Description:
Blueprint: H1 2-11, H2 26-31, H3 34-50, H4 54-58, H5 81-108, E1 111-115, H6 129-134, E2 141-147, E3 156-163, H7 170-174, H8 178-182, E4 198-199, E5 206-207, H9 213-216, E6 222-227, E7 230-232, H10 242-248, H11 279-285, E8 293-300, E9 309-315, E10 326-332, H12 343-368, H13 380-386
Antiparallel strand pairs: 1-10, 2-9, 3-8, 3-10, 4-5, 6-7, 6-9
Helix pairs in contact: 5-12
Family: Belongs to the CDC50/LEM3 family.
Pfam families: CDC50
GO cellular component, one term: plasma membrane
Amino acid sequence: xxxxxxRNTCHDRVNLPHPHSPFPFANQFNSIHPQIKLQKLVAxxxxxxxxxxxxxxxxxxxxxxxxxxxxxxxxxxxxTPGWVIASFLAIAFLFIPIGLVSLFASERVVExxxxxxxxxxxxxxxxxxxxxxxxxxxxxxxxENITVPKKMDPPIFxxxxxxxxxxxxxxxxxxxxxxxxxxxxYEFTTKDCEPEARVNTTWxxxxxxxxGLIAWSLFNDTYNLIKQDKVxxxxxxxxxxxxxxxxxxxxxxxxxxxxxxxLIGGGKLNESIPLSEQEDLxxxxxxxxxxxxxxxxxxINVSLEAHDTITVVLQNNYNTYSFGGQxxxxxxxxxxxxxxxxxxxxxxxxxxxxxxxxxxxxxxLYVFKPRPLGDPSYLSWNxxxxx
Length: 387
């Protein structure tokens, strides 16, 4: 009996934590029944293995929204034969006239394209065209005749076209200083213009204005057009974008140290004229996206009659022979869609023709092989049962 009393007394004893203990509730934890301690330990292990409980995981559910759950009201057309046929016919009747009008406008444009880079090589240099174009002493004057196929009403635009010239090359495009072009205060900002950044680099160097490979490779072929012993005036004013002449090229920036090295890349600039007025340079500095491109050279404000013979006196200065490029002179009128380009009209006619063909096919199918909408006999299991 005494032993039983002592056992109960020990079992009911409450172990209070020591006031200076670093773990004040350690004794209470130790006083818990061993089976309860084991259950708690297993539960903690399951929590660590399986992650948070289901209720805790559900607490991370995103906020409900009809937009994110794609439950907003929507209208979806039922693609009945009538809807499909009407849609194809509407596209066809809209696109085919636009295509015809675009082709008609493009056909009204009169365009003369003359390639002269091969014809202007002297016979003595046929085997070494690079030596011909790099020889500064050799006369580069070339005289050719072109015939006007149809009457050309003013304004007649004069372009030069280059083929296989990659103005979109990454290093070429970045080789310029827009700050230097815009203001004289930034004439020493030439870090992006290497190798055409400065001259006399041994002593720190003087900046080249305009610097960079784009300006250095400025196109420098010239054209003079003669009709019946009368020189046609080629107006070179207004050939650049106004945003370029007013904003991108400063009126207080003048050429400096340009094309003074031994290796000449292209044309030279008049150092007494600000960059904002040198529109040949401004047009050239707007780089092309494709290797074949045209740039505006000038405008002719007189008409040319059909079968007129135009004598072209040109200076074949620009080197395209080193990289297999081509040079062409282009004379062209314009219409409401721009220059001569049949692609737009052909594209509209192609899409319109395909839609018209599809509409006719659906009409024939609907007439000769009609299919009622919602007919359960067309379900796969019903069709198998019939077969």
